[in-house]
Amino acid sequence: MRCSYIRLLVNDYEACFHFYADLLKLPVLWGDESSRYAEFDVGSPTRLAISQREVMAEALETDTADPELPHQDRLAVVFEVEDVDATTEQLIATGARQAMEPRDWTAWGVRAAHFRDPDGYLLEINHPLIPAQD
């Protein structure tokens, strides 16, 4: 398992895009000011991503009031794994709390499952649907 992204789930996507792209001058690897999702090169194998909060809330069906989640998620730590389904089974067997079962997120280009840590932070495990071209 390798940490591939730190994903900030933001309220003002356009302002945040300009902050990271224009003020911090991070190279944009994917997305633009209107895409609602972007990835930035931070000089390491782990990338910084920003996403409009509602996009993740809709995907995980957390956009309604949940007594265990008083607010929509603000952060997701994303790990790339070799096999999403096998890793999901292992995590559940060891007591991890699953938030969303494995599924293909074709629009995102990954197979992913979602979990919560003991404090409620969102974790995603994923694997590309199409292997990277070497």
Description:
- 22% of the residues lie in helices and 38% in strands.
- It has 134 residues and is α+β, with helices and mostly antiparallel strands.
- The protein has one domain: Roll (2,3-Dihydroxybiphenyl 1,2-Dioxygenase, domain 1), CATH 3.10.180.
- The protein has an 8-stranded mixed sheet with strand order 2-3-4-1-5-8-7-6.
- It holds the Pfam family Glyoxalase.
- Residues 2-128 form the VOC domain.
- This is VOC domain-containing protein.
Summarize this structure as a short list of keywords or feature phrases.
134 residues; alpha+beta; 2,3-Dihydroxybiphenyl 1,2-Dioxygenase, domain 1; 22% helix; 38% strand; globular; Glyas_Bleomycin-R_OHBP_Dase; VOC_core; Glyas_Fos-R_dOase_dom; VOC domain-containing protein
